[in-house]
Design a protein that fits this description.
The structure holds three protein chains of three kinds. Chain A is α/β, with parallel strands linked by helices. Chain A has helices spanning about 5-15, 35-45, 50-65, 105-115, 120-125, 150-155, 160-170, 170-175, 185-195, 435-445, 450-460, 460-465, 470-485, and strands spanning about 25-30, 90, 135-140, 140-145, 160, 200-205, 215-220, 230-235, 240-250, 255-260, 260-265, 270-280, 290-300, 305-315, 320, 325-330, 335-345, 350, 355, 365-375, 375-385, 395-405, 410-420, 425-435. Chain A has one domain. Chain A is built from 13 helices and 24 strands. In chain A, strands 4-3-7-9-12-14-17-20-22-24 form a ten-stranded mixed β-sheet. In chain A, strands 13-15-18-21-19-16 form a six-stranded parallel barrel. In chain A, strands 1-2 form a two-stranded antiparallel ribbon. By secondary structure, chain C is α/β, with parallel strands linked by helices. Chain C has one domain: P-loop containing nucleotide triphosphate hydrolases (Rossmann fold). Helix content of chain C is about 35%, strand content about 30%. Chain C has helices at about 40-50, 70-75, 95-110, 115-130, 150-160, 180-190, 230-240, and strands spanning about 1-10, 15-25, 30-35, 55-60, 65, 80-85, 90-95, 140, 165-170, 195-200, 215-220, 225-230. A six-stranded mixed β-sheet of chain C has the order 6-9-10-3-11-12, with helices on both faces. In chain C, strands 2-1-4-5 form a four-stranded antiparallel β-sheet. The termini of chain C are far apart. Classes of the chains: A alpha/beta, B alpha/beta, C alpha/beta. Strand 23 of chain A pairs antiparallel with strand 18 (about 345-355) of chain B, so a sheet runs across the interface.
């Protein structure tokens, strides 16, 4: 395997993060640092009503007393929260772009470069060849464009930026904001509640099956900024929505903080499918730079027979700290978590889920695939909790780890707490490496080492990749291969 | 200046004159360490399910009923074994076997030898470190009253099991420290039992320091069948040299709290560590198993299997951790924990943890929680068994394979009898 | 021995049995045949007393008692034996221990002394000789890792030892090769007697070549649609259930 020729092939193929460019445009920024004035500044920038400002200030005061969590298996220098810009928005003539024409052409070009279609007419004409996806594009702190809004409005679906929702749908925001992830939930969620700049809001009315995939594309562009977006999705009774999230950032030598909060609410018989392909800049091969991705994602199956399904492919970020979770409150509700987390070089990931079974006949399924290469550390941390009232609850968990090289780590930390005897909980985990037999077999059949690894890893992750919507699956599969470049030795 | 004195400071002063070594400086060192650490709070993950709040009372014990203890002993003694009986934490020679006369075995009590041997003192004091989870090891060092010091010469093959019997369940805190070392190629079987029908609410705090040299093998059985209100905490620290083997089995069937903790580390290659156990709990009992196997070197194997059956308001805990260090290639580690809940109010907590820094390893764990299978119960009833019998048989069946790790049939039966006693009254 | 009067039964709220009548006397062998989903296994489970099978109307009298009022184990102790289509596995429960407990449960009910290990082994040896089987299966956990044929043989051993009055055998022939079928049939035939009755539930006539029934009943959609002698089974074998409005793939 470690022939000189192979090494050379790898060196040629490895390295470049293809989304690492910077877009040079004029920005409207808050000064660095965090205090009540900054919180007021952000709120004012968005013309927020008083109640929203109060919510932020309350969270800010709680954050001052909160402590940075230490229990995760991730290691990073103390973050200087005063050295971050908490607001950065592309300058536009008006406060918000009214149409695509008002958006800086450089931004449009950025999204095009990323393969994200923002021009509806082009999409409709089939020029980009992109399928049925409505996109909310978040550039640094603000949403710059939301496509297909009009078409979705016809059937009552609200799909807009979070700032817009605060102004246009205050009753929904007041009712649901913080109802799943309370403002004081944890250090980073609390910080987010104070300074969140924008994000996506989705409401699917009763009985509506959203006819297209909804998608948000996050892009961090400006240096020294944090991105704190907020996503809130409400699926009313009997509705159905599939939502995709993608993200990239330029290559920089400094670490940038991304601390998002996502809240999902599914009422009776509703279903939310939430897919993420996380490809923030992971830092270079020596571990310099990269995004700190400290995210709180949680969904509540509030209604009977509702379903929330999380699928994530985590390939980017220097550090990932996220646990997309389900609170299974409604009888018969279903929670799912499908995850692929790949760490290479000096990346660290501590990710997993919590499934809290409260209602009767609730079921959950956890499939986690962790791949660790280089000097990376990859931890699955998950909790399955069966409350006393959760009659006949079922959980199945499968966590598999694949190690590539002898300098990396793969860790599995499941917590199982069962307080109802009618529950059935099963957890299985394995740790392995790509066997020499598998590699040899592939090479003997004429595959390049990189191809062989990509193929074996894709096979290892198949159960999760199958869950991704078509639009993402191909891209995600390529990502797996790219993320592992340089890991064969 | 009015400084609050550390927990147990006064009791320590009052108790130490009656302990071996009296007010020797090493006791003070151990106590100072404990005082600095304090009792671990439930915020510590390893103590999350074990409350020590009831330990904060009086540590001194009440007088014991020697007659009752002596008569109960006869059922506990394994025929043909060497017996060391500790009553209220002190070795009682009249109730025990002769300590000498077995080739290759040096057998003494800690109480009788600690004053003369610096090496022993070092072992007591140096163990524990600064980890807050080790506070009870430090407290044990400060207040240790006795224990067994067992040393097998290289190549010694002990056929007779060595049995340590902890009799007399006092109201205070009893601290016993056993120091066991097996020379190269030696083999031995150690059985510990704490069994008491009295309803006293004392604490037994046992620390075992175990060294298994190259190619040696220790089989270690613990029966924790204490009285209903008793608390029994045992902490075994095991080091395994090249090709050494350690097989441990614990039955946690008695007491309000039974906590069994094993930390094993491989200091040579080619070793094997097997940890197994059964937790049976009713009432409000807590059965807490904490294990950590540190695969520090290559080519070692470990296997863990723990099963729990909880009834009433009882709860079980399994926190099992396997660490595979970077050098520990070709490690093979498996870990399993299976739980049955017999009552609506019972709880099972399981945290099988793998921490892996090497790539050429085979590591797997599995955990399940459930209730007795309705189809199996029905099948048995169609064969004429009443429901209670059917449930009992299924529970016995559920735990049956764990006993199989005990190779000696007589010892297997001895341990199984204690489990059956629990099942019979549940 | 058994008198079923107009029973209706539901499973999970679905009506499966819709008025079954059947009288079984000592010495008789009945075969109940029918297409998949007709309710054959439901009838067996109702008679054995499985939870979740709700009898909504009708009555069942067994040896003068209200059978439906009896717990599953009480039925078993009073001589009602159910041979399962899919015998369940009992991990960790030793086959020999289980069998002796079952035998003694029945003996206790009959006012007989429980058998100790030695006497039980003697009885077992006799029965095994009659069955032409060996007791290797009994040294393992009940049904754990058994092949389909081994599981059925184990059912027959249990039946022989428990010495029941009424035997309900649910698809006992399924999954058996010809040698196993002969062995199992021989075991069933050994149980025939003046004071004993057998009800065989089966999809195919194959078993009936070896265990000759006195009566054959055809169960379709929860009701008996036809009854007759052994010749009825042969007719079904030739013509299928088409005459009853059922069309099955061959």
């Amino acid at each position: 395997m470690s022939s000189i020729e192979t090494q050379k092939t790898i060196e040629e193929a490895s390295g470049d993060y293809k989304y690492g460019f910077v877009t040079d445009i004029e920005m409207d920024m808050a000064p660095k640092g965090l205090n009540e004035d900054i919180v007021r500044f952000i709120s004012a920038k968005k013309n927020e009503p008083e109640w929203m400002l109060e919510y932020r200030l309350k969270a800010y005061r709680a954050w001052l007393k909160a402590e940075d969590p230490e229990w995760a298996r991730v290691d990073y220098p103390e973050i200087d929260f005063q050295d971050i810009h908490y607001y950065a928005a592309p300058k536009t003539d008006a406060d918000n772009p009214k149409s695509l024409d008002e958006i800086d052409p450089d931004i449009l070009a950025t999204y095009e470069k990323l393969g994200i279609p923002l021009r509806e007419q082009e999409v409709l004409a089939g020029i980009v060849g992109s399928p049925n996806v409505a996109v909310d594009a978040v550039f640094d702190s603000v949403s710059v464009a939301t496509t297909y809004k009009a078409k979705l409005e016809e059937i009552g679906v609200i799909f807009c930026s979070f700032s817009e929702a605060v102004l246009e749908h205050p009753e929904l925001i007041k009712k649901y904001l913080g109802s799943v992830v309370p403002a004081g939930d944890n250090f980073y969620a609390t910080l987010n509640a104070a300074v969140f700049s924008d994000g996506t809001f989705v409401y699917i009315p009763k009985g509506v099956r959203c006819p297209m995939e909804l998608s948000t594309y996050f892009r961090i562009n400006t240096a020294n900024t944090g991105q704190f977006e907020r996503t809130l999705i409400i699926a009313d009774e009997g509705s159905h929505v599939s939502y995709l999230e993608g993200c990239t950032a330029p290559m920089r030598d400094e670490n940038q903080l991304h601390a998002a909060v996502v809240e999902l609410i599914a009422l009776d018989d509703a279903e939310i499918k939430y897919s993420t392909v996380q490809n923030w800049y992971p830092g270079n091969k020596d571990g310099v730079g990269g995004i700190y991705n400290f995210v709180t994602k949680r969904g509540v199956c509030r209604g009977k027979n509702s379903k929330i399904s999380w699928t994530q492919v985590e390939t980017g970020s220097a550090i990932t700290w996220k646990y997309p979770s389900c609170i299974l409150q409604g009888d018969g509700s279903v929670g799912e978590f499908y995850s692929v987390a790949i760490t290479n070089n000096y990346q660290q990931a501590d990710t997993g889920t919590k499934m809290i079974h409260i209602g009767k006949n609730t079921t959950s399924k956890i499939i986690s695939k962790g791949i660790s290469a280089g000097f990376a550390q990859n931890t699955y941390r998950g909790m399955v909790k069966i409350m006393p009232g959760a009659e006949n609850a079922r959980n199945f968990t499968q966590c598999d780890s694949l190690l590539m090289g002898d300098q990396c780590g793969a860790h599995t930390v499941p917590y199982i707490e069962v307080r109802n005897p009618t529950a059935q909980v099963e957890h299985e985990a394995t740790t392995s490496k790509i066997s020499e037999d598998q590699m040899f077999y592939c090479l003997q059949r004429g595959l390049e080492p990189e191809e062989a690894i990509s193929m074996i890893v894709n096979g290892f992750c198949r159960e999760v990749m199958q869950q991704l919507p078509m639009e993402f699956a191909v891209e995600a599969q390529k990502l797996l291969g790219i993320s592992l470049e340089g890991s064969v030795g | 200046m009015n400084v609050e004195s550390p927990l147990f400071a006064e009791q320590f002063e009052a108790m130490k004159p009656s302990l071996p070594g009296g007010d020797a400086s090493w006791r003070q060192m151990a106590f100072d360490r404990f005082a600095a650490l304090g009792l671990p709070s439930r915020k510590r993950e390893a103590w999350r399910h074990t409350s020590l709040s009831a330990l904060k009372g009086d540590l001194t014990g009440q007088p014991l009923d020697m007659e009752g203890i002596t008569s109960a002993l006869e059922n506990q003694k394994i025929v043909g074994a060497l017996h060391l009986v500790f009553v209220g934490g002190h070795f009682v020679p009249e109730l025990s076997s002769a300590l000498d006369g077995v080739d290759g075995l040096t057998l003494r009590t800690l109480g009788s030898s600690v004053e003369d041997e610096d090496a022993l003192v070092d072992q007591i004091v140096l163990n524990g470190g600064e980890n807050p989870d080790e506070a009870l090891v430090a407290l044990n060092g400060a207040l240790v009253s006795d224990g067994a010091v067992i040393k097998l010469a290289d190549g010694a093959q002990m056929k007779q099991p060595i049995q340590l019997i902890y009799a007399g369940n006092p109201t205070g805190l009893v601290n016993i420290r056993n120091i066991i070392s097996l020379g190269k190629g030696a083999t031995a079987t150690l059985v510990e039992i704490a069994q008491d029908a009295t309803a006293t609410n004392g604490w037994l705090n046992i620390v075992n320091q175990i060294d298994v040299e190259d190619g040696a093998r220790l089989d270690h059985l613990r029966v924790m069948a204490d009285g209903a209100d008793a608390n029994h905490i045992s902490q075994s620290r095991v080091s395994l040299a090249a090709d050494a083997r350690y097989e441990s089995f614990a039955l946690l069937s008695g007491g309000a709290l039974a906590r069994h903790e094993v930390q094993a580390v491989f200091t040579g290659t080619g070793g094997h560590c097997g940890l197994s156990g059964i937790g049976l709990g009713a009432g409000k009992a807590v059965r807490d198993v904490i294990t950590h196997i540190d695969h520090a070197l290559p080519d070692c194997t470990s296997a863990q299997i723990f099963k729990n059956v909880m009834d009433d308001h009882a709860s079980s805990v399994f926190q099992g951790k396997v660490t595979v260090q970077q050098d520990a290639q070709r490690t093979d580690a498996i870990q399993s924990n299976h739980n049955i809940l017999l009552a609506r109010t019972a709880t099972a907590n399981s945290k099988p943890e793998l921490v892996i820094f090497a790539d050429d390893v085979k590591c797997a764990h599995g955990a399940t929680v459930g209730e007795l299978d309705a189809n199996q119960l029905f099948y048995m009833r169609t064969r004429g068994l009443d429901e209670a019998t059917a449930r009992q048989l299924l529970v016995e069946g559920f735990i049956a394979d764990v006993f199989d790790v005990i190779e000696d049939p007589a010892l297997r039966d001895y341990v199984r009898a204690h489990a059956s006693a629990w099942l019979g009254v549940s | 021995m058994l008198e079923i009067k107009n029973i209706h039964a539901t499973v999970g709220g679905n009506a499966i049995l819709k008025g079954i009548n059947l009288t079984v006397n000592g010495g008789e062998v009945h075969a109940i045949m029918g297409p998949n989903g007709a309710g054959k296994s439901t009838l067996g489970n109702v008679l054995a007393g499985r939870d979740g099978y709700d009898v909504t109307a009708g009555s069942v009298t067994y040896r003068g008692q209200d059978l439906l009022d009896m717990a599953p184990d009480a039925r078993a102790r009073d001589g009602l034996f159910m041979g399962f289509q899919y015998p369940v596995e009992l991990p960790g429960v030793n086959g020999m221990t289980f069998l002796r407990m079952a035998a003694n449960a029945v003996r206790g009910h009959r006012g007989l002394e429980p058998l100790d290990g030695m006497d039980f082994l003697k009885l077992l040896k006799t029965k095994m000789a009659e069955l032409e089987m060996d007791d290797a299966l009994l040294k393992r956990s009940v049904n754990v890792g058994f092949s389909g044929g081994e599981k059925k043989r184990n059912e027959i051993i249990q039946m022989a030892i428990m010495d029941p009055h009424l035997m309900i055998l649910d698809e006992t022939d399924s999954g058996l090769d010809i040698d196993a079928l002969k062995l199992v049939s021989q075991g069933i035939n050994l149980m025939r007697g003046e004071d004993k009755a057998i009800v065989m539930i089966t999809h195919y006539q194959r078993l009936l070549d070896y265990v000759k029934p006195d009566f054959v009943h055809v169960l379709v959609d929860g009701r008996f649609v036809d009854s007759g002698g052994p010749e009825l089974a042969l007719k079904l074998e030739r013509e299928g259930y088409a005459a009853y409005g059922v069309h099955e793939a061959a």
